[in-house]
Amino acid sequence: MKESDFCSFLAQVPKAEIHIHIEAVLSMGSIRKLYLKQYGREMSRQEETDLFSYDDLDGFIKAFLTVQNLFETVADFSYVFDDLANYLVKNGVVYCEAFFAPTAFLKKGFDYNEMVSLFSEKINSIKTEHNIIVKLLLDVSRTFGCENALKNYELLKEYPCKDIIGIGLGGSESKGPPAEFEPVFTRAHKDGFHAVAHAGEDTGPESIWDSINFLHAERIGHGISAVQDPKLMDYLIQSRLPLEVCITSNVFTKKYVQKPEEHPVREMFDSGIFVTINTDDPVFFKTTLLEEYWKCYSLLHFSMNEIKQLIYNSFNATFADDTEKINYISRVNAAWKQAPEK
């Protein structure tokens, strides 16, 4: 099947995406506008190239923080949610759980309550205009340490927002072992919030084990180093703990995967591990959700029925209620009647 035919069909199939960072859906057009507002001049081609030139996780995080630094007011988040809406529509995503990392903006003096109020306004608009559900996970990043993570959690508690359903641990794995953040996650679970963690992306399987044992994570972001530990593989198979796999992202950071066709998601899926397909940071890794599924089909030899199972997984791994999940999967089945055979 040609890529154009595959993507044209798949764009019409309802999908969920559960590992994506909202600042990383900014279009280059929006980045240029933010740059012009801040510096009073156009962003040069060389500056664009330099911004997206990195070959490891730490380099990517530096670029991510650079983009965050372009924001000067809370209103600038309107660019984010407008671009997010466009991205979700183009990729046929009808339900999304996305990460928001507040620390860099709080350090710039942004008011947390103003931010989440704008978020809710824009999320409501996306639902009204496109019938797409967006929920947020507060990223209590490793980058700034546990004390800062606790401060972020206090803001989550102080200013309740129905659109923020839990917390996630992101940032550089090597600089922030999960165990250090156990106090934050213990409180989150006690208060009824969901909890997820990036792990096994840039470090070994011990990071995944620690996210399970210390953080009681309900999903694992990436998780690709699990293939190094047979006991962990067995645990993931038995527990049905979902992995939020991001193929292109893992290739870009080059820790364990050098090219898409070597990605362990095929091995994980065949073993019975509960894997989902996501983009992580579309603008930074120059990908889309449709392209990630195309890589599964064209390079990793997933059949169309297996692609459908991955889409089922994307909904079943969400924090939506069971009735919503059943409805979404019914919509997938209805759309799949038009699936090309090959």
List keywords for this structure.
342 residues, alpha/beta, globular
Radius of gyration: 19 Å
Arithmetic mean pLDDT: 95
Anisotropy-based shape: globular
Number of strands: 8
Helix-strand string: HEHHHHEHHEHEHEHEHEHHEHHHH
Count up the helices: 17
Low-confidence segments = none
Helix percent reads 40-55%
The major beta sheet can be summarized as: 8 strands, parallel
> What fraction strand?
5-15%
Distance between the termini: 6 Å
Structural class: alpha/beta
Adjacency order of strands in the biggest sheet: 1-2-3-4-5-6-7-8
Oligomeric state of the chains in view: single chain
What do these coordinates show?
- The protein has 17 helices and 8 strands.
- The protein has helices spanning 3-10, 28-39, 45-51, 57-68, 77-90, 103-107, 112-130, 145-158, 182-190, 205-213, 230-239, 247-253, 265-271, 282-285, 289-298, 304-316, 322-336, and strands spanning 15-17, 93-100, 133-139, 164-169, 194-199, 219-222, 243-245, 275-277.
- The protein has an 8-stranded parallel β-sheet with strand order 1-2-3-4-5-6-7-8.
- Strand 6 (219-222), helix 11 and strand 7 (243-245) form a beta-alpha-beta unit.
- Helix 5 runs parallel beside helix 7.
- The protein is globular.
- The protein starts with a helix and ends in a 6-residue tail after the last helix.
